[in-house]
Amino acid sequence: MLLDDRDLQFLLYEFLDTEALLERERYAEHDRAVFDATLGTARQVASEFFAPHNHKGDSNEPTFDGERVHLIAETRYAWNAFADAGFLAAQHDFADGGLQLPEVLLRACMAYFNAANIATTAYPFLSIGAANLIKSFACPSLREAFLPAMFSGRFSGTMALTEPGQGSALGDLRTRAVLHEDGDYRLSGQKMFISGGDHEMTENIVHLVLARIEGAPAGVKGISLFVVPKFLLDAESGIGKRNDVALAGLIHKMGYRNTTSTVLSFGERGGAVAYLVGEPHKGLGYMFQMMNEARIGVGLGAASLACQSYQHALAYARERPQGRHASARDPSTRQVAIIEHADVRRMLLMQKAYAQGSLALCLYASSLVEDAHTLDSSEAREDAAQLLDLLTPMVKTWPSRYGLLACDLGIQILGGSGYTREYPLEQLYRDNRLNPIHEGTEGIQGLDLLGRKLGSKGGKGYALFLQQVELTLEQASGNELRQPLSEALATLKEVTDSLQRQVEQDPDHGLSNATVYLDLFGRVLVGWIWLRQALVATQALNAGASGDEADFYHGKVHTARYYMDWELAPLAGAARLLCAGNSANIDMHNRWF
Amino acid sequence: MLLDDRDLQFLLYEFLDTEALLERERYAEHDRAVFDATLGTARQVASEFFAPHNHKGDSNEPTFDGERVHLIAETRYAWNAFADAGFLAAQHDFADGGLQLPEVLLRACMAYFNAANIATTAYPFLSIGAANLIKSFACPSLREAFLPAMFSGRFSGTMALTEPGQGSALGDLRTRAVLHEDGDYRLSGQKMFISGGDHEMTENIVHLVLARIEGAPAGVKGISLFVVPKFLLDAESGIGKRNDVALAGLIHKMGYRNTTSTVLSFGERGGAVAYLVGEPHKGLGYMFQMMNEARIGVGLGAASLACQSYQHALAYARERPQGRHASARDPSTRQVAIIEHADVRRMLLMQKAYAQGSLALCLYASSLVEDAHTLDSSEAREDAAQLLDLLTPMVKTWPSRYGLLACDLGIQILGGSGYTREYPLEQLYRDNRLNPIHEGTEGIQGLDLLGRKLGSKGGKGYALFLQQVELTLEQASGNELRQPLSEALATLKEVTDSLQRQVEQDPDHGLSNATVYLDLFGRVLVGWIWLRQALVATQALNAGASGDEADFYHGKVHTARYYMDWELAPLAGAARLLCAGNSANIDMHNRWF
Asked: pTM higher than 0.95 for the full model?
């Protein structure tokens, strides 16, 4: 099973009210059956075309013979099946050739693909992001030239930001673009870690490249965005001659192996033809407008892998006999399944809390994306955008950290078998290890949260978050899970106030524990997500759910209880250190290490 | 650099008083120069014969063509170099062909080999353990037949405990031994995850196998230990005919790839000739007498990999320029090395605390092994043995958990590069992921600590531990690090008392959070280890250390400060839950997952 289908239904239709989207004008032509059929298609295509080669792609990673990149053939079949099912354009309007489907539903679909094979899914994931950038910011002629082919799957796309000389410090990038007399640009420089940067699955690859136009200001304010296709288009929009983009080499990764990770050289033969997207020097701004969605995508990938790990570990724990309870050591009695052991149950409970908590968080964030686009009032849309903006650092990092931990626990539950490549657990860990790194490391996200997001627009997003949590706490009146979250919220407020004062006084010191603060905020946020799930489940139980349904809801309530007990427990210690401005890290001199 | 040589000198000669061993009778013929030369040899052999093929062995794991196992040739050269340097027998007396060197010194030597290439080091590590078992418990004829060849490296050894049908539950093993008319046994059954179980590096492989003699009692009380060589010996102790032991297949692991992990079939052609070690039905007891040392070995392996990861990450962080301080965002200024970023420094500090704390802990435990063997008074030897017995679960698991975390942090510090196989960090993580699993998982160690070790011999080991920590706290009078450890010790006592009562009342419930307790105990234990290091360092600083020496000691003191602040902070939350007998895990029904 790729995902727990019952849980996905719960998250979409009970935890979130996805059906209510049908009342919005954009979705007036859809109905619940369309939503469910879309999910069904995703599950089927993922099961049939993605899952079967997940292990094979890991063991047979892409190779480069100096001329061409070789991928296992199943990758292309999967790409085609994804495209044929319409997912490359599904979020776009009917008028643009899309299916006009809501963000939150499509994210749920992506969860199936991620769970099945995240390395192969990276190709469409990146292509969708690249097409989005063109759609949102490029001129009509660029849109017409590239989007239909990207929507149909003839062309794929990449995002080319990172360079060998700078990783997270985008402001220092050195790829240069020079205006040519033909009105376009000639681009030269090297990009690194470009996923999907070369292959022969599609007729063309459309690179979205950040570069600095000759004479542009230094830093982030001098960066522009370009479309640089692998092949130029001829006069009839067909494939023309090769552009000056060359694969310098493949990078060999710990996981995500079936995704090519490339070093690309632009302009080694005079300059790659590059088409400016939007206005000069605004490239980073465009990129950041898409960033929230890309970061939810990373969180969702981590959540999906965690869910897969949980599914496998749970199935194994239920069928593997080993040992006996402490109170029943008689060796002549039958062994119990390892799920009967308290420590295995503890690990499964942690996995469930992390995996399902992550998935719920990412779908909730996707519903905010949806709201920011399709709510009626502009004020409500702006509120959703502000709240999303604040929460994005946690949506990206919490699943990446705790989803990875869920994968680690999956290995541990299987013991020696979990450590072997004969079982899928270790690959899930290796694949997931990328997620705390790409699209902004944990350290970057912490700085973004504490140094930027908290105070942006007068702290509007933060105020909205507090309101939302307080609303839930009111609804939870009388519920035993209310108190721990209420205390955690008070702790978060106290720490936030203190750190904001510290940052004002001395930004270097004040921001020095931003990653710890990010973790603390994430724990409270996911505590809220779990309380909301528990409230819905409790309501269903009170309404008389029985049998498997009752088990499902009890599982939700009990996992929330575990979360409140154990995952909020470390807050007090961290809060004390943060409020005291503990400076152990910055006090440690370089030469003392 | 394999290890920080200065740190190793500090741990052996300042933190521990290894030089004082020269006063013991067994080491009367040695001097400090011999100790240092031994360390130098280990460093040199590890650098020359082990480190260079660490990556190659990972990328070219052993293969089995149905007849023979193929390993890269460097593995055999490394084995030979290790044997030629005398390390296979170094711990044994001169009279037995050994070098009569102390345990703690040889463990430090093993740290070099582990850091260089833990997968290749597994072969001698296991062989030393197997030879130890024969030496300690086998009859003279078995000792004479096998030990000289094992000490010289002509034969290697394995430990064959696990079976496909039972992992941690040794009492349920099913390999059978039948007494043959020739006075020896015929053994049949299957063993799994047997490291070094087949290869052609040595003339013979001596398997130490746990099996049940026909008619033996069920459970742990009916297990016997056998020597089962791959080749029988002929009348002149030369290699005779093949024994009935067959390689059923190789297992493919996440890391440790150059160590063959095997499934071995015994007795498919009528029964493998097996020689009983010691008395019937006492096999598990013999195994457990060696277990403390094997478990320190696992902890030390984890510590060594953590130290390697720290070395690499530190070097990278010092030379990789990227970004600027929050207070100096002017893009025209030079980028700083990433060690200047607070979050990178935080991660390096955690790495240092985990890596050096683990190494110190394992060497301290090795000094207890030494004391248990060579202290003058039998009472003092017994005390050392009791203390070691108590601490072994933490010595095995704390480095395995936190050393692994150090490897994870190493990846994160390098970012995208850390995730690639072009850098050594990701392999270090994959190699280290085994250590929380083998030689008793974390869950098993927690049960061992709380269910067995704490109360054994009337709680003697625990009382000794408290005494030792209180002694250090007295010595730390006036030191600002005293207070946090003192509070942590009080917490540990309170939790221990509470849990012991809970176990007495209801073992299943009382033991249900044993793994959490193990972690809590481990944190306090390593806090003590760090305080002791800080006291030594403070003394050296007060005595006027300057320059690089002062930097080194400041690093120790400051890392201890970090540890007290941050690593003891979560204790209170966990203690509250443990004392309350929190039962979130066992209350979660199987069908609720």
From this structure: yes
